[in-house]
Amino acid sequence: MQVAPVLLVLALALATPSSSAERKCVLTGSWINDLGSNMTISIMNGRGEFSGSYHTAVTATNNQIKISPLQGSQHRNNQSKQPTFGFTVNWSFSESTTVFTGQCFVDKDGKEILKTMWLLREKVNSLSDDWKATRVGVNVFTRRRRE
């Protein structure tokens, strides 16, 4: 039996990139959504808590858009390759708060994608205006660059 062909086959098998199902989706880094908003998630601690910033591309106010802080947490099951997460953005330029919840996926091409749903609550001046204080939506984020 020749050793060289066996070693070559073994080396090729080990050098083959792992499939997207084996890649872990990592939340930290820079992301852009389908509306052009930019989000950066900083280093995550051991409890799955993270912070960062959100620069929205859209607003329902006439105020100048400013970068806003976010706080969140990833599901604590560190073994999950496609974790669920949630975060809150307290908008720096309006009296409103948005909560996002979602899941981090790796698609068949190895691209990381965040699928999210959000709920925005803005301040209103009276109980009778409560009906117009809440909006909901969905966003898809893709990684701006691999870090």
From TrEMBL:
Subunit structure and binding partners: Homotetramer.
Signal peptide: 1-21
Entry superkingdom: Eukaryota
InterPro entries tied to this protein: Avidin, Avidin-like_CS, Avidin-like_sf, Avidin/str, Avidin/Streptavidin-rel
Entry keyword set: Biotin, Disulfide bond, Glycoprotein, Secreted, Signal
Organism: Apteryx owenii
Keyword check for Ribosomal protein: no
Disulfide cross-links: C25-C104
Localization (cell): Secreted
Function: Forms a strong non-covalent specific complex with biotin.
Stated family: Belongs to the avidin/streptavidin family.
Keyword Ion transport appears in the UniProt entry: no
Name used for this protein in its record: Avidin
GO CC terms, sorted: extracellular region
GO MF, any single term: biotin binding
